[in-house]
Amino acid sequence: MRWRSVVLGLLLLRLGLQALLTLLPALARGLCLHPRLPCPGPRPPALPGPAAGRGARLWGAAAGGDEYERRYSGAFPPQLRARLRDAARGMFVFGYDSYMEHAFPRDELDPLHCRGRGPDRRDPSNLNINDVLGNYSLTLIDALDTLAVMGNSSEFQKAVKLVIDTVSFDKDSTVQVFEATIRVLGSLLSAHIIITDTKQPFGDMTIKDYDNELLHLAHDLAVRLLPAFENTKTGIPYPRVNLKKGVPPDSHNETCTAGAGSLLVEFGILSRLLGDSTFEWVARRAVKALWSLRSNNTGLLGNVVNIQTGHWVGKQSGLGAGSDSFYEYLLKSYILFGEKEDLEMFNAAYQNIQNHLRRGREACNEGEGDPPLYVNVNMYTGQLMNTWIDSLQAFFPGLQVLIGDVEDAICLHAFYYAIWKRYGALPERYNWQLQAPDVPFYPLRPELVESTYLLYQATKNPFYLHVGMDILQSLEKYTKAKCGYATLHHVVEKTKEDRMESFFLSETCKYLYLLFDEENPVHKSGNKFMFTTEGHIVSVDERFRNSLWEDILPGQEDSAHKTKPTELKAANFSSNCNRVPDERRYLLPLKSNYMRQIDRMVGLI
Question: Would you list which residues are annotated within the binding site?
Fold first, then answer.
């Protein structure tokens, strides 16, 4: 009898398992059993109005759609948005307070050991450190305008006074001209503009008895950088300069395109605030020199050039490291200063990029073929040079937003977001053919957050709030350390390095905060603002469109003719802001089948 009971029990167990397997597909979605796809939370109610209804008819209602539509479609609850805004502020405060407690007045914070870091005096060849750290309280300076944007007037005023009282550039430090310009010079100018703005959009950020001290510091630093522009046969500056002694005698004659050609915004602002053309003149001369060296065949530039001979040492043309901010500053210099030649150079460069670097189908959201992707090619032939892209290239969708090429920006952003979803970070270099990181570290870079923020401002699509939430949660989960936030040494293994770069506070935290703070004065004050390549905020106003000198800058026949902001239009592209209709605001910016295609391309599914 006992064996019959055992057989009967086994039979009943088998029938139960069969019933469970029959129900499993229906349960899987609620239990989050689909492999690799994120489990959707409860979908917030759709906002009322005709746009949501039209979108549902045109693109398929989210309720009947797939995982992508269920997760990302619909409105984003204001309470959740407020919590994420506060979380982004808390992230900045933890990093900033940790720096001030454990690292100031040194340049950077080591967040694992809770100590400060300065230049590597024992190893001058350690350029990864010495190019950036100049023994001038870098992180404090770089974070100034983030304090203002977050409305913390008391800490902003305290930090400015600390800079005035303690920072000097009379240092025996050899720094990279580019890094000193975008991180230090740019932040000093941004904070000075905020302090002296008669409208005070961020609250009372004025400093009692302020006598333009930050402007004087910026001037002093720029004068110390000027020797880099001397004794070069092309006008392209040396990459490094000693703040006390000028260009080192053993200085290299090679520099990258971005490093030499991304100085015009900061140097131009300084010139126009001082009424001294010197700084803008040398920066603009460098841009024109690089532009004159582009290929006659493709119109492309390489990434490394000899400053004496003008010969290209690095013939790779791409949108990442070594090239990125050169293109960014062609456009932003025009936006700020209104010089027509800057826009003409940008339009020509953008068209050449489209012709030779862009791969994939013609349209982002329709047609067949691979999604659009910008690759690295030979500057002379346009032929593919390798199969990797780097994390710095994630800035490009944000630049496309500024010129109105929003549809193409949506696709490229989705590719980088897919990589982020796979690793919880962006590897410094990703091989799209091998579907694996080539260089696996992540130093808390802001470029994907920046593009996410700008795409949200352009489309108001809650999809980008979900993206920002993913990024913020990943940073908290994988990079938070005992005293601040740490570089990921390996995005797969999630091991950490003991370094928190200053741009984490000046850019990454700032863009996350602004993404979730709809009521911020940046969005509501009526002022026009622009962000530098280091994320420093500057007002776009007429004083920067009027030079106080009469001499002609290189390449200009008549500086009196300036284009108006309404004339900004990148040539030869079919997309523009108007191609993103209102009915798509609460649905996916990229159709779910294309999003799934991108996820598959990066090995996410």
Answer: 533
The 10 Å Cβ neighbour count of residue 106 is: 21
- On whether the CB atoms of residues 44 and 74 are closer than 8 A, the answer is yes
How far is it, in rounded angstroms, from Cα 61 to Cα 74?
Answer: 10
Please indicate whether residue 280 is annotated as part of the active site: no
Amino acid making up residue 318: G
Beta strands at 484-485 and 115-117: parallel, antiparallel or unpaired: unpaired
CB contact at 8 A, 47 and 75 = yes
- Catalytic residue among 428, 450, 507, 599, which? 428
End-to-end CA distance of the chain: 51
What predicted TM-score, i.e. pTM, was given to this entire model? Answer: 0.86
- Of 324, 328, 501, 599, which one is the catalytic site residue? 324
User: At 306, phi and psi to the nearest 5?
Assistant: -85, 120
**Residue 324 a catalytic site member:** yes
Amino acid identity at 577: C
547-579 burial, b for 16+ CB within 10 Å, e for fewer?
beeeeebeeeeebeebbeeeebebeebebeeee
3-state helix, strand, coil in the chain (%, to 5): 50, 10, 40
Angle at which helices 509-516 and 463-478 pack, to 10 degrees?
140
Residues facing residue 496 across a β-bridge: 488
> What is the dihedral angle through the alpha carbons of 73, 78, 82, 87, rounded to the nearest 10 degrees?
-20
* Binding-site residues for Ca(2+): 533
Least confident stretch, 134-148, 227-241, 545-559: 545-559
Burial class (CB in 10 A: 0-12, 13-18, 19+), 497: middle
Amino acid (one-letter) located at 423 = Y
CA distance 317 to 383: 10
| Catalytic site residue from 131, 145, 155, 179 | 179
557 is catalytic: no
Residue tagged active-site, from 339, 407, 447, 450: 447
Alpha carbon 533 to chain centroid, angstroms: 7
CA atoms of 372 and 430, how far apart (whole Å)? 16
| Catalytic residue list contains 428 | yes
- Joined together, the tokens standing for residue 381 give 């032939």
- Give me the amino acid identity at 154: S
What gap in Å lies between CA 529 and CA 526, rounded to an integer? 9
Band of pLDDT at residue 155, cut at 50, 70 and 90: very high
Higher pLDDT, 256 or 555: 256
Instruction: Give the integer Cα–Cα distance in Å for 520 and 150.
Output: 8
Q: Say what the pLDDT of residue 130 is.
A: 92
Amino acid at residue number 126: N
Longest dimension (CA), the chain: 110
Domain boundaries, the chain: 81-252, 260-386, 388-500+541-546+578-604
Which residues share a beta bridge with 339? Answer: 562
Q: Does domain 81-252 have CATH number 1.50.10.10?
A: yes
Please tell me whether residue 131 adopts helix, strand or coil conformation.
coil
Using one digit for the tens of pLDDT, what is the confidence trace for 259-272?
Answer: 999 999 999 999 99
Contact 387, 431 (CB under 8 A): yes
